[in-house]
Design goal:
The complex is a heterodimer. By secondary structure, chain A is mainly beta. Chain A has no helices and eleven strands. Classes of the chains: A mainly beta, B mainly beta.
C-alpha cells in the first residue's frame, strides 16, 4: 500500500473525446510524475510536476497536459483521444530531495480504453 | 539517454536465489541505478538503488560492477510473491525515470 490513489479505475472513451485522470497521495509528496504503459511494455514517462509547475516532459504531444494543485493532487488531461492512447496510466509521487535518489511511489493506475 | 538491456524472461525455483542481470554500458558518472518491480495488476514498486557500491536492503541486494557498466539484482530466496516484471532503470540528476521492457520473472513451486 503506497498511499497513492488514482481515479477512475477504468474508463472507456471514444476517439476524439477528452479525458481527465486524477491522482492523490496521502503522504503529501510535492512531486508527481505520470506514465503511460501500453500492454506488454514498460511505463513511458509523460511528464513531471514539482510545486505546481511542469518539471520535465517525455516524448508526448501537447494534447497531453497536466496540473498539480496546492494540495499536491494532480490531473492528467488528454485531448483529441486516439486509439493508441489506450493504455494503463500510472501516477507516481515522491518528496523531492536529491532528485535521482528519490523513491517514487506508484498508484494502481487507470485503465483507459479508446474505441 | 543511457539505455539498459535486460533478458526478456527468467525462471527460478521457489526458495532458491535469483540473479537478475542488467547491462548499461553507456551509463554516465551521475546516473543512479534503480530497480523497480511490477506485480500483476499493480503499479511498479521500488526495490533498491545504488551508485557505485553494492547495496543491501530487506527486499534484495544490488551488485554493481566496478566499471558500472552492469549490475545484478539478487533475490536471496525467491518466493511465489516475487513473480513480477523487474525493471532496471538509470536515473540522471533531472529525476526522469525511463523504463525499459524489463525481465519477467517466473517462480516455480
Amino acid at each position: 500500500e503506497t498511499g497513492v490513489t488514482q481515479s477512475p479505475t477504468h474508463l472507456i472513451k471514444t476517439r476524439g473525446q477528452q479525458v481527465t485522470l486524477r491522482c492523490s497521495s496521502q503522504s503529501g509528496h510535492n512531486t508527481v510524475s505520470w506514465y503511460q504503459q501500453a500492454l506488454g511494455q514498460g511505463p513511458q514517462f509523460i511528464f513531471q510536476y514539482y510545486r505546481e509547475e511542469e518539471n520535465g516532459r517525455g516524448n508526448f504531444p501537447p494534447r497531453f497536459s497536466g496540473l498539480q494543485f496546492p494540495n499536491y493532487s494532480s490531473e492528467l488531461n488528454v485531448n483529441a483521444l486516439e486509439l493508441d492512447d489506450s493504455a494503463l496510466y500510472l501516477c507516481a509521487t515522491n518528496w523531492r530531495t536529491r532528485a535521482n535518489t528519490d523513491t517514487q511511489y506508484f498508484g494502481p493506475g487507470t485503465r483507459l480504453t479508446v474505441l | 539517454d543511457a539505455k539498459t538491456t535486460q533478458p526478456n524472461s527468467m525462471e527460478s525455483n521457489e526458495e532458491e536465489p535469483v540473479h537478475l542481470p542488467c547491462n548499461h554500458s553507456t551509463i554516465s558518472g551521475t546516473d543512479y541505478i534503480h530497480w523497480y518491480r511490477q506485480l500483476p495488476s499493480q503499479g511498479p514498486e521500488y526495490v533498491i538503488h545504488g551508485l557505485t557500491s553494492n547495496v543491501n536492503n530487506r527486499m534484495a541486494s544490488l551488485a554493481i560492477a566496478e566499471d558500472r557498466k552492469s549490475s545484478t539484482l539478487i533475490l536471496h530466496r525467491a518466493t511465489l510473491r516475487d513473480a513480477a516484471v523487474y525493471y532496471c532503470i538509470l536515473r540522471p540528476p533531472n529525476n526522469d525515470m525511463r523504463f525499459g521492457a524489463g525481465t519477467r520473472l517466473t517462480v516455480k513451486p
